[in-house]
């Protein structure tokens, strides 16, 4: 079987983990990595991560000229860098490359740019690309409809150093129409990687949907899942939520 | 608005709780209660449960002759007695009464009888009629399809005196194709009313679906939910699982 | 063995549960119940709670004159009424009766009164008399000393209708020197009876101490435990916390 | 302040994490590391782990002759290798070095050897050296004494690949006198690092003591804690359990 060729934007702490997940998966070929600056320029990400083969040649963002994507073709571009990467998407899209962006925050102008590309290319944008979190989001919305009288609270737990409220938790609150101030509880202790819990309280029963992250590789697995889902799809703007929602629809049990 | 008239089979510990839930809900009128023996014969369930009005006149199962259901018409019959009640369903069905059975175990012959009635009447049969448990069952089946490589374990916790493994947990194991011996864990301690947890373990993340029962009134609320769902439906055999699965389908979020 | 004679102040929702626990325990004889007003005056609490014997004759608080406690001697007075009961403690104390108060809130003046009685009599005062909650409180204080760098958060979950923050959670925060605004999280959903969790987060591990109330009978069991603990003790002011702390000391494992 | 000098046995997956924790802690100086074979011989563990200074020179176990410990003096030897390391303890003990062994399993003969050294030196042996697990063990034993009628169950959760039952969970069962077959439940799913829960079920309340490992660095922190505890102590055989039990005793809250 032909391998799926992937290029990655970003080679920081998370970017390395993402690269590692693609390197580990025999269905994929990591073709290149684009990063800021010239550190490890033209070395192979594979070698830096301890593999005994060459893959994921490292380029600087300065190297990405008009021919970059045509000369180094991939099936999908996976972006774990920062919001500035968005301005290179056009060149990639024009070269027919599917785009998977896991950037946590964009300005409106950047989102508009993404939407414009989605008219003629497959673009997936999800600030939280983890499979499990999106399952939680979709299940919670359905459950709220089934049990409209249930009281709902969100609890998110993260390591002490995380200052801001979890964006994922805010997204969940938003989807469920819950006031963040009142119904979102943030716990900051020790080294907890990440835990989200949605509590549905009814007079005689309680339902809890819980997601725990064990490590950042979950993001890489989410990206792998996203790239695979885009294959064979028509152009358009995708999110993990829409994909998972569609998978819910297709997998409703039949008795 | 016209009230929904209900008759109940069973007035034991659970039956009383069920009657109480219907008495408490202004959308319903509890017309009668049928129980074994002649205890509190012709008294009102409402009075025995502390209400200041007459509702739910108590009859013996011996009173249920060919005219019983026609003379005391209800919209739905709710059965929390035992498997022997099934033999009176035919008379009720012929009087056009919807049937909701929450009996935990039937013989094959009894199930066949229920199926035969479902040809011309609405019959809902669910050994676990709690809303939340059925939400768990449906969500777990979908999740298994979305994350087919996840390892799944079921943990059920109940009070020390409960001898057998939870029928609900066995049903979940069965729906997910899990070997009960290997993947179903039973905790028996103190006075825990009932807790079911389904753990989906992936390499980098864990999802937990959890349901806790606070008290038996959850069964009554499930019955209320079931009776309402049957209104306006065509004849057929329903279960809470099929109803909840259908509600999942109708409530997939649209973005 | 001679039974321990008990009198109860209070016959409301909680008071009835307390009475029931004492009636159920063969080590105790429920001698009388004192309540406000004249409802069920001179009836037996035992009969009202469904027992087939006479125990716990019901008196009005107006009946408690100077001779009441001498004429109806008990070993312990258990108070689940309200703060006004405290003004009858002196008469009881002078009759040599041990006092167990589970009143949730006293004014300073009332606390002073309790302290004055403790000089010559056994008086136990605990706003939360549940065994498990006090175990949590003591264990949390020790754990904080053993792991002084751990981050600590408290989560308390209760039914939607409970307006104020859990007094128990506030007490825990206070014992641990935690700012309530910052480290105490209150979840209000559905019908949760009561759950307290203390989370100790360290960089590489997390410890959780969790207590769940199943029903109010836990208060009755706490009172039974308290009355037994006071037997044979010298006069003084006791709390469940001091008793449990002492039990911790006596039960440190020896290897 | 003078740094505490430490030598480590073992430089496998766990050994490296342990070395890293000591290198990260300014109170300690990592003097040497002894490992099997000659890989990275005479290199510095610090450099291999990414530090910019020389510490933890690597030796082969073959290098440990009669003069090794006198020529490279340390305050404590920390052993995360395997049971064979025990045969070098005598030489270390004779050089006045405190010994901390975290080996998971010893033969009786090896335990006897350790005991003989404890007559004239400080020796700490704990198969599970994590602070939190030992806190759980001690707290559980006390709680069992305080609530002797509580039903107790142990649940341990680990990654799918872990074949055997958790040794820690077996130790807890043993300390509490619980039959492993009946009361110890093992969950094996995905990538869970390690979670132990002890459930105390009483008729009206449930207490849960829970410990979650986030990563292996918890072992290193346990070793750091152990080395510090041994300073200034008389010769003898110590375990983390005895140390934590003693810390419980010294930190019982006083009101």
Automatic annotation (TrEMBL), chains A, B, C, D:
EC number: 1.17.1.8
Keyword NAD listed: yes
Alphabetized Pfam families for the sequence: DapB_C, DapB_N
Alphabetical keyword list: Amino-acid biosynthesis, Diaminopimelate biosynthesis, Lysine biosynthesis, NAD, NADP, Oxidoreductase
Stretches assigned to the Dihydrodipicolinate reductase N-terminal domain: 4-128
Family assignment from sequence similarity: Belongs to the DapB family.
Name of the protein described by the UniProt record: 4-hydroxy-tetrahydrodipicolinate reductase
């Amino acid at each position: 079987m032909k391998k799926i060729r992937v290029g990655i934007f970003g080679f920081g702490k998370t970017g390395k983990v993402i690269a590692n997940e693609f390197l580990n998966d025999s269905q994929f070929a990591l073709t290149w990595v684009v990063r800021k600056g010239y550190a490890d320029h033209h070395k192979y990400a594979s070698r830096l991560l301890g593999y005994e083969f060459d893959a994921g040649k490292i380029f600087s963002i300065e190297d990405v000229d008009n021919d970059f994507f045509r000369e180094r073709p991939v099936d999908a571009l996976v972006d774990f860098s920062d919001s500035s990467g968005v301005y290179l998407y056009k060149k990639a899209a024009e070269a027919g490359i599917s785009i998977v962006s896991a950037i946590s925050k964009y300005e409106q102008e950047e989102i508009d740019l993404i939407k414009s590309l989605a008219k003629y290319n497959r673009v997936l944008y999800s600030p939280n690309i983890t499979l499990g979190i999106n399952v939680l989001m979709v299940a919670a919305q359905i459950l709220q409809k089934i049990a409209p009288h249930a009281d709902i609270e969100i609890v998110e737990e993260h390591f002490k150093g995380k200052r801001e409220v979890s964006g994922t938790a805010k997204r969940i609150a938003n989807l469920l129409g819950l006031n963040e101030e009142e119904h979102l509880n943030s716990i900051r202790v020790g080294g907890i990687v990440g835990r989200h819990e949605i509590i549905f309280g009814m007079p005689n029963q309680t339902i809890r949907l819980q997601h725990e992250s064990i490590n950042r590789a979950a993001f890489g697995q989410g990206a792998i899942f996203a790239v695979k889902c885009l294959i064979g799809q028509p152009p358009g703007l995708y999110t993990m939520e829409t994909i998972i929602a569609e998978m819910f629809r297709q997998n409703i049990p039949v008795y």
